[in-house]
Amino acid sequence: MADTSGTLSGARRARAAGRPGTMRLIDALGYRLPLAGVVSILHRASGALMFALLPFVVWLFDVTLSSEASYDRFTAAYAAGIGVFPAWFVKLVTLALIWAYLHHAVAGLRHLWMDATHSVTKEQGRTSAIATLAISIGLTLVLMGKLFGWY
Amino acid sequence: MSVNYGSKRVVVGAHYGLRDWLSQRVTAALMALFTLALLVQVAWPGRPLGYETWAGIFAAQWMKVLTFAVIVALGWHAWVGVRDIWMDYVKPVGVRLVLQVATIVWLVGNMGWMVQVLWRL
Predict the structure, then answer these.
(1) φ/ψ of residue A123, rounded to 5
(2) Is B55 in Cβ contact with A51 (below 8 Å)?
(3) How does pLDDT run across A49-104, given as a tens digit for each residue?
(4) Residues A67 and A26 in one domain
(5) Structural domain boundaries, residue B59
(6) Which pLDDT score, from 0 to 100, does residue B22 have?
(7) Which of A62, A105, A111 sits opposite B117 (nearest CB)?
(8) Quick one: A46 and A75 in the same domain?
(9) B12 within domain boundaries
């Protein structure tokens, strides 16, 4: 192809001409994903979130197990906050963690199920994606009620 | 590009093959089983869920051994997953290397802390 625009790169030339060029990360927001795609990107996002929150998980493991005094620090964090973090923030982060764990686990079981049964049709992908979202969001709401003391 | 094997193979560090795929699933299955084992003990009828019960669950030697295996599985699983994220989105080799090393440090550090909590009980 003849280059008629001097220093412009292929992607910029494409955009200037009003057609898609090299993808930028921001372009991902324009995607209209099928439900299986939503489950897939959330699988990745929930994994990354748990990776980032790993010190919080280990801290919970530490304070809940080490001694009765540290266990009291754990319950106090959810009642009155801890350090610069108010209790509602601790609960919000915990809720994010609960959702991430549930979504990641259910989406992972969906993968194992697909591997074991060779379920690779579009219909199966869509149905199992709906089931994944329903189970993970449903269980998150149940535990959310417990976390915020609604019942 | 027609010949991509032997001495002509283009090495891109993409971890082709069965090993990572399988380790991702084996470590996941182990963590799922651990979750189940923990849930059964937490929900065991007839005892209140407080410090005594919770610490008692992790006091059993078999539970310590299982938890230790799960900590290793978690680190392995997260390494493969996060490494895939860097490989997908970060193209400059230098930046990617720094992020991968930081990921290993992050995971090993957190795993060490978890192991310390587990075995001093």
Answers:
(1) -65, -45
(2) no
(3) 999 999 999 999 999 999 999 999 999 999 999 999 999 999 999 999 999 999 99
(4) no
(5) 19-119
(6) 92
(7) A62
(8) yes
(9) no
Q: Is 0.90 surpassed by the pTM of this model?
A: no
CA distance B5 to chain A (A): 28
Q: Which of A100, A110, A108 is nearest to A140 (CA)?
A: A100
Residues of B in contact with A48 (CB under 8 A): 82, 85
- A70 shares its domain with A124: yes
Tell me which residue has tokens 């099928």.
Answer: A34
Check whether A23 has a pLDDT greater than 90: no
Taking 70 as the pLDDT cut, the residues of chain B under it are 1, 11-13
Q: How many independent structural domains does chain A possess?
A: 2
Q: Identify the domain containing residue A79 by its residue range.
A: 33-147
Does one domain contain both A48 and A118? yes
Interface residues from chain B to A (CB-CB < 8 Å): 25, 28-29, 32, 35, 50-51, 54-55, 58, 78, 81-82, 85, 89, 103, 106-107, 110, 113-114, 117-118, 120-121
Chain B touched by A6 (CB under 8 Å): no
